[in-house]
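Q: A reviewer asked whether we had any structural model of the full assembly, not just the individual parts. We don't, so I'm hoping you can provide one. Inputs are below.
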Amino acid sequence: MELRHLRYFRAIGREEHFGRAAIALRVAQPALTRQIRDLEAELGVELFERLPRGVRLSAAGRAFLDDVEEILSQVDRAADRARRMGSGHLGTIRVGLSEIAAAYDFISRGLLHFREHEPGVALDLRSMGSVLQIAALKEGALDVGIVYDAHIDDRDAEGLERAPLGFGETMLAVHENHPLAARESVTMAELAEQPVLGPARATARGYYDRLMSACIESGNAPHFVQECTTHSILFSLVSVGMGVGLVTTAGSRAPVPNVRLVPIADLGLRFEVLLVWRALDRSAALRRFVEMMVDHASVLPGGGHARAG
Amino acid sequence: MELRHLRYFRAIGREEHFGRAAIALRVAQPALTRQIRDLEAELGVELFERLPRGVRLSAAGRAFLDDVEEILSQVDRAADRARRMGSGHLGTIRVGLSEIAAAYDFISRGLLHFREHEPGVALDLRSMGSVLQIAALKEGALDVGIVYDAHIDDRDAEGLERAPLGFGETMLAVHENHPLAARESVTMAELAEQPVLGPARATARGYYDRLMSACIESGNAPHFVQECTTHSILFSLVSVGMGVGLVTTAGSRAPVPNVRLVPIADLGLRFEVLLVWRALDRSAALRRFVEMMVDHASVLPGGGHARAG
DNA sequence: AGCGAATGATACCCTGTGAGTATTGATCGC
DNA sequence: GCGATCAATACTCACAGGGTATCATTCGCT
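A: Here is a predicted structure for the entire assembly that you could use as a starting point for your response.
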């Protein structure tokens, strides 16, 4: 049995007329006679009652017609689904999101934009740290990650592709009652007297190392009193007055009400926010996602970032 | 797209290996390569990722495989259903049952027997009068009827086929306190003094006419005081003492507690209980039903009836 | 009653396509 | 580096499915 049999049978069953079905199918009538004869032989069932003039569906034929209609429409749906999937309009993308990502409006806007323009593609957003994202990407447990460039070392580079989305400036988080809270900017020298909170090397090695290098280069390495594994912990500690914090984030507003962000004049430590994915991944949906994220939150050659139309 | 494509794709998708799939399908491997190439071209989707060594389902291929599995099993189910329907093991038979039928145990037993042996065939039992059954049969609203022969006249005979199932004896229904209740049998002469209940000509013309003819032939036409359209009405009236009733039924027990059935020695009016169906009806389930009913409640050539093994 | 139209079945021919064999190209494992 | 593995390609062949012409039957309209 082939779909041809079913298509022919459906046409004849609907019309209960070989001639009209032949016209609709754009084949000659004898072809239908033969195919239906073969189909009936294979099933061992008379699908049509041969009347003196014309034909009529038998009881078995009527039941079979219902099934065939369902089957053929299911075939169409399956083909359509495969096509949409192949063209990237349908599917699931597993996106790794470290908590820092939420701070960048071009990321959340980009995600929203994609979801609106590709409603068939489910975004499986997974909150996980940058280091974990890289590992998950490599073992195929994640399709795309959003991380700081500092977390990718050269060994990671092979097999992974990346695209810059924007930048994160490293700033000082201070409690609103802190003397430095009202300042336009501060210098590293001013931090020497302060208890400073910083990242944890264990969970963000590359970032930690680059931050430390920059501090040392500035000539005024601060006094770190606490390593924080996440931004939210760091902000919490700053907000209860445990010290000032070195954080890399977007914009000038902290996610906690009573904490202010102050630029550091002589540090100039910038991190790139990257989209990362497997170079071998040929998923059309992924390509579409990357394209849209890059396009939406396009990074200008000069270094800043702006929204594209 | 043909089922061949789907069958090949399913085999390769399950194995993720062209060679083994070719063996399982009993075709040469190049045939698969070509069919899959065509299928992918038609869908515009790469269903398999071509690895340096071997193949792997793509995301679209994996989704398509799920659909294809469903489609192919549905095709099998549809074919199976059509076959079962064609062989009479599946379907629906609309059976007309007049209330008299319930009195004959070979009918209820036959129905039960059929239901047990053909669980795939639904019996759509419809309670309707004999005359209505004949009409419904002719216009295709009913597949088989169970009626007294008296209701079929020669005009009905054409187009309808019949088979005898058993006999109904015409007896006298009397209230248990009635003087005749204890008798072994009565004669028509004895009924002359009685108020008699009989059938209604409007709803059972053939039966009524034959009953009347027999009464007149007996030489003692009784005095009918009431026409009853149904057996249950007649029995009700007898049970409240409105008179004695002439009824045709099976066995010697009335369906109402305080009514007795007494044979009428000199009437000898017997009616055949018939299975009736359209001669042109080629439904296998119907044929199976007729065969089983006749076989089960087989009527012996001598005239009586007995149960067959 | 007879003729023509309608309808599906049959006969016959021909082309396209699907399958087979042999081979290539590429890669992996030892 | 050699042989094994695996899919793709080249080429040939047979047959299945489609087309045209025709038949058999029946129905409708004179």
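A: Points you may want to mention in the reply: Residues 4, 27-28, 30-31, 34-35, 51-53 of chain B lie near DNA strand C (CB under 10 Å from a C1'). The interface with chain A takes residues 1-4, 6, 42-47, 49, 58-61, 63-64, 67-68, 70-71, 74-75, 77-79, 81-83, 85-87, 91, 282-283, 285 of chain B (CB under 8 Å).
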